[in-house]
């Protein structure tokens, strides 16, 4: 009898051990799968946001060279003064990474003296063309506007670099802006080896006779050389927020690295690596993202291990309790009570863990759709709300407006007071923007010192202008920066939505209007 009861007790203990192990493993699998799924979703959001930011910036640069090419082509007799006037509003602050703007013309070897004489007569008095050896045709820089310390690039022959020649031929053949393969800029030969970067060039063909009855005549190219790391590093770091490492490479044969942002410590988890392919300026780029320990910490990847440890501990405890129960009925009853209390405590603890997971998920969701510095909506949430607002107003009628805002003088605040002061100015401006709007309106930070606003259900265009005037007045007020006074102003572009206008149309028109406000003297608004 005693032997039978002993075997029965051992069998009961074994059953409890097997059941508890199975439940623990199942719980671990559920929590671990949830953590992996959530981390994957976060990586997908980062990948989509970063690839969209890269594509947007490259598109803006392509539009810039295209607009400059059109402006240059519109000149009946282009001179250096015309080129200086056309490019006067551009600088390295508006075009991060750009080394300058150049006007390039083609010439065969026998034509070099005549071409040099022609452009000297049109304002480039000191122009000296330096043809590359061993090539039948040349691509000379005749006018330049530099944004960096490298000057006197006029006269160089871009045919020295096959990649530069390739983008010129591509732009001419297609009649559209193009981007070169990755290469080292000729102008960077003058820099120290440690200062040289992998770069690309944006190019657009220049035609005269546009808009007239005369046939279009090819004149040359507008070329913008851009250093890759300077071009994209700020965007990669700003969008990645230290949670991911990112790398922008050129697809195809070279796989050259154009830019990279490598904060934190990378985690070896291939399932979370994300890649996005981009097509910009007739070139193919690829954005690759890796998770860091900061991202895994933010997604509570340690909770699955905690669940496994807690489940194993509970299983062993139940086994011990079952063994004790076989020895004494009274003690068994007492152990059952203790086990019940422990089980309730464990359930409460698991509920607490689940509550923490839900809270962390809400925090991450807020982080994914809001700017961490100002608390405003970010670019992704702004696009979502604008798309919804356009669809709603198209269905039920009414008007809405988009305001694109850029701060004037913000770089001066950073230079004179430091980046901490810049952050304080951005938060103060964000508070003033919120205070100037209704609860139904949306204000977002697009990055840097750019903001955007959605005004819903406005009665007329005048409502949007009234809001713009109020914002200009509020932002212009002095800002206390640790006992010192800082002041910024705003340039605002307004686009009013009507039937048939898409969200992209409104954003693009507001952006163009904002640049017009800046070009027209700043501290004002312009309506598209």
UniProtKB/TrEMBL annotation:
SMART domains: GGDEF. It comes from the Bacteria. Residues 398-528 form the GGDEF domain. Residues 141-236 form the CHASE domain. Its main location: membrane. Keywords: Membrane, Nucleotidyltransferase, Transferase, Transmembrane, Transmembrane helix. It is an enzyme of class 2 (transferase). The chain crosses the membrane at residues 306-325. It is found in: Membrane. InterPro entries: CHASE_dom, CHASE_sf, DGC-Regulatory_Protein, GGDEF_dom, Nucleotide_cyclase, Rev_trsase/Diguanyl_cyclase. GO terms for molecular function: diguanylate cyclase activity. Its EC number is 2.7.7.65. This is Diguanylate cyclase. The lineage of its organism: Bacteria, Bacillati, Actinomycetota, Actinomycetes, Micromonosporales.
């Amino acid at each position: 009898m005693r032997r039978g009861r002993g075997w029965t007790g051992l069998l009961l203990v074994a059953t409890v051990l097997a059941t508890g192990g199975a439940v623990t493993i199942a719980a671990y699998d559920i929590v671990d799968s949830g953590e992996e799924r959530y981390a994957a979703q976060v990586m997908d959001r980062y990948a989509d946001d970063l690839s969209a930011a890269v594509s947007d910036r490259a598109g803006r640069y392509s539009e810039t060279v295209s607009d400059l090419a059109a402006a240059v082509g519109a000149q009946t007799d282009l001179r250096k003064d015309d080129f200086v006037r056309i490019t006067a509003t551009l600088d390295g602050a508006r075009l991060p990474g750009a080394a300058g703007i150049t006007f390039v013309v083609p010439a065969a070897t026998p034509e070099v003296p005549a071409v040099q004489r022609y452009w000297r007569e049109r304002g480039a008095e000191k122009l000296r063309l330096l043809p590359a050896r061993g090539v039948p045709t040349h691509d000379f820089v005749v006018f330049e506007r530099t944004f960096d310390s490298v000057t006197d690039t006029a006269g160089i022959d871009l045919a020295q670099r096959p990649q530069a020649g390739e983008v010129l031929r591509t732009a001419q053949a297609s009649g559209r802006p193009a981007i070169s393969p990755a290469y080292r800029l000729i102008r960077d030969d003058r820099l120290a080896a440690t200062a040289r970067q992998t770069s690309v060039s944006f190019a657009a063909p220049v035609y005269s006779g546009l808009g007239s009855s005369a046939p279009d005549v090819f004149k040359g190219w507008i070329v913008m050389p851009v250093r890759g790391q300077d071009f994209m590093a700020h965007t990669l770091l700003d969008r990645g927020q230290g949670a991911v490492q990112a790398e922008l490479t050129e697809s195809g044969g070279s796989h050259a690295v154009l830019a990279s942002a490598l904060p934190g410590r990378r985690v070896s988890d291939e399932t979370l690596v994300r890649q996005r392919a981009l097509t910009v300026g007739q070139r193919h780029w690829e954005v690759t993202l890796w998770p860091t320990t900061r991202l895994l910490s933010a997604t509570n990847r340690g909770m699955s291990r905690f669940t496994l440890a807690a489940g194993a501990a509970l299983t062993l405890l139940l086994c011990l309790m079952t063994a004790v129960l076989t020895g004494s009925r009274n003690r068994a009853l007492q152990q059952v009570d203790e086990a019940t209390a422990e089980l309730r405590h464990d359930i409460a603890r698991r509920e607490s863990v689940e509550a923490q997971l839900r809270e962390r998920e809400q925090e991450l969701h807020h982080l994914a759709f809001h700017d961490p510095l100002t608390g405003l909506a970010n670019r992704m949430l702004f696009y979502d709300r604008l798309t919804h607002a356009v669809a709603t107003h198209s269905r039920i009628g009414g008007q809405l407006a988009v305001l694109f805002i850029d701060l004037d003088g913000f770089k001066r605040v950073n230079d004179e007071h430091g980046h901490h002061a810049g952050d304080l100015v951005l938060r103060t401006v964000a508070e003033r923007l919120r205070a100037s709007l209704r609860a139904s309106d949306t204000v977002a930070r697009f990055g840097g010192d750019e903001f955007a606003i959605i005004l819903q259900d406005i009665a007329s265009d005048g409502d949007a202008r009234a809001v713009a005037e109020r914002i200009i007045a509020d932002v212009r007020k002095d800002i206390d920066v640790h006992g010192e006074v800082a002041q910024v102003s705003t340039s605002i572009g307004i686009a009013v939505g009507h039937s048939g206008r898409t969200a992209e149309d409104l954003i693009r028109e507001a952006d163009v209007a904002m640049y017009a406000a800046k070009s027209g003297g700043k501290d004002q608004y312009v309506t598209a």
